[in-house]
Amino acid sequence: MPYAWSPIGKPCEVPAYSHSRRLNVLGFLSRAGKLIYHTATESVTTDTVIDAFDHFVAQKDPDTFAVVVLDNASMHRSKAFRRKILEWMSHRVHLVYLSAYSPELNLIEILWRQMKYAWLPLSAYLSFDNLCDEVHRLLDGYGTECAINFE
Fold first, then answer.
1. Which position has the higher pLDDT, 1 or 96?
2. Other CB atoms within 10 Å distance of the CB of residue 31
3. Of 128, 132, 130, which is closest to residue 16 (Cα–Cα)?
4. pTM (predicted TM-score)
5. Binning pLDDT at 50, 70 and 90, where does residue 16 land?
6. What would the DSSP string read from start to end of 101-140?
7. Quick one: which of 46, 69, 96, 128 could link to 78 by a disulfide (CB 3.0–4.6 Å)?
8. How far apart are CA 49 and CA 61, in angstroms?
9. Does 20 or 60 have the greater pLDDT score?
10. What are the residue boundaries of the Tc1-like transposase DDE domain, all occurrences included (predicted)?
11. What is the pLDDT of residue 87?
12. 38 closest CA partner among 12, 63, 68, 14
């Protein structure tokens, strides 16, 4: 749970789980507010990222040009990932790498921060299933139920 407020003397408590599970979200967000995302409950590997990119390319309008901004994570620089770059470029997808240690320059980081600290209800943290349901609800509703104006 990121942050919570409670009255003095009434602590806000959620159960702690000893078997950590995680929900990873990889996303593609346009300045116009279109979101395409891919979730994974296992560790994110190069193959996970490649699957997410292939999913993005399959959903992208083939006539539009897309610039994907990436951080310098190892899976974004691996040999397997680099082998796919020309294929993605043939689908009008161009990759741009951020300077080291500057994730704040990537617009989707604003979305992740907003989801985590403002939009996720405290009930999302009661169980892993609740978390998955709430994250998917927010992602599916992005642009209609919740949105960020980047203009």
1. 96
2. 9
3. 128
4. 0.81
5. low
6. T-GGGSHHHHHHHHIIIIIS-GGGGG-HHHHHHHHHHHHH
7. 46
8. 20
9. 60
10. 2-131
11. 97
12. 68
